[in-house]
C-alpha cells in the first residue's frame, strides 16, 4: 500500500463554501495564468495562480474516467503528492445547471453591450469576467460522466 501512494496525487478543491472535490489521481491538469499545468505524483512543490478554466482529473479508481471541474480563478499548491486548489468558486461538471449558465452568459453579453455604449471600461471588464465564468461552466458541463 505504501508503494501505491507514491504514485498517486491527492487532489483537493476548496472554496469558501467548503470542499468541492477530494480524490486520488494519476494526473491533474489545471489552467494556470502562464499556461496549463500537468501534475503527476512526485511533482516538485509549486504554487501557481489559476485563471478561469477547467480542471481535469484522471482518477486512480477508474483509469477510463476523467472528472471535470469548473474553477473560477484561485491558486494551486502542490507539495508532498497533495495538490490543493483554493478558489472563490468551483463546480463539478455533474452539478452545473446548464440553463442557469446559459442565462448568465446572455446577461453578461447584454451588460457588455450596454457598457460599451456608455464607454464604461470598468463595467466591461466585470461583465467580461462574468461571461468567461459562464462560458467555462457551459464548456465543463459537456464533460459530465
Write up this protein:
This protein has three helices and seven strands. With 145 residues, it is an alpha+beta fold. The chain has two domains: 2-93, F0F1 ATP synthase delta/epsilon subunit, N-terminal (ATP Synthase, domain 1), CATH 2.60.15.10; 96-141. Strands 1-2-4-5-6 form a five-stranded mixed barrel. A hairpin with a 2-residue loop joins strand 5 and strand 6. The longest helix has 21 residues, at 98-118. The two termini are 28 Å apart. The mean pLDDT is 93.
Summarize the structure.
It is found in: Cell membrane. By secondary structure, this protein is α+β, with helices and mostly antiparallel strands.
Mean pLDDT metric: 93
Apparent shape: elongated
- The CATH superfamily of the largest domain bears the name F0F1 ATP synthase delta/epsilon subunit, N-terminal
Q: Please state the structural category.
A: alpha+beta
Question: In terms of per-residue confidence, which ranges show pLDDT below 50 for 5 or more consecutive residues?
Answer: none
How many domains?
A: 2
Q: Give a count of the beta strands, DSSP E runs of length 2 or more.
A: 7
CATH architecture of the largest domain, by name, is Sandwich
Distance between the termini: 28 Å
β-strand percent reads 35-45%
| Helical fraction | 25-40%
CATH topology of the largest domain: ATP Synthase, domain 1
Strand order of the largest sheet: 1-2-4-5-6
CATH level 1 name of the largest domain: Mainly Beta
Counting DSSP H or I runs of 4 or more residues, the number of helices is 3
Reading the helices and strands in chain order gives HEEEEEEEHH
Amino acid at each position: 500500500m505504501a508503494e501505491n501512494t507514491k504514485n498517486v496525487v491527492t487532489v483537493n478543491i476548496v472554496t469558501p463554501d467548503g470542499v468541492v472535490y477530494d480524490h486520488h489521481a494519476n494526473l491533474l491538469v489545471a489552467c494556470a495564468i502562464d499556461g496549463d499545468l500537468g501534475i503527476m505524483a512526485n511533482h516538485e512543490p509549486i504554487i501557481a495562480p489559476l485563471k478561469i478554466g477547467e480542471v481535469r482529473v484522471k482518477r486512480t479508481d477508474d483509469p477510463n474516467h476523467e472528472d471535470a471541474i469548473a474553477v473560477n480563478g484561485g491558486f494551486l499548491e502542490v507539495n508532498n503528492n497533495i495538490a490543493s486548489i483554493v478558489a472563490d468558486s468551483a463546480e463539478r461538471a455533474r452539478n452545473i445547471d446548464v440553463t442557469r449558465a446559459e442565462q448568465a452568459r446572455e446577461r453578461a453579453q447584454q451588460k457588455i453591450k450596454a457598457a460599451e455604449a456608455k464607454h464604461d471600461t470598468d463595467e466591461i471588464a466585470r461583465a467580461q469576467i462574468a461571461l468567461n465564468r459562464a462560458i467555462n461552466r457551459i464548456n465543463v458541463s459537456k464533460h459530465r460522466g
